[in-house]
Amino acid sequence: PEESADPTLAGVTYEVRPDARAERVAVQACFDGVPPARLVAPEPAAELLTEVRGPRGEALPHAETITLPGVGPGECVRWTVDLRRAAFTREVTLRGGEALLAPGLLLWRPPQRGLPLRVRFELPAGIYASGPWVQAGVAKELSTDDLRVPGNLAFTRSPPLRIRQAETELEAAVFAGELAVDRAGIGRWLRAAVRAVDTFGDGFPVA
Question: How far apart are the C-alpha atoms of 17 and 47, rounded to whole Å?
Answer without folding.
Answer: 19
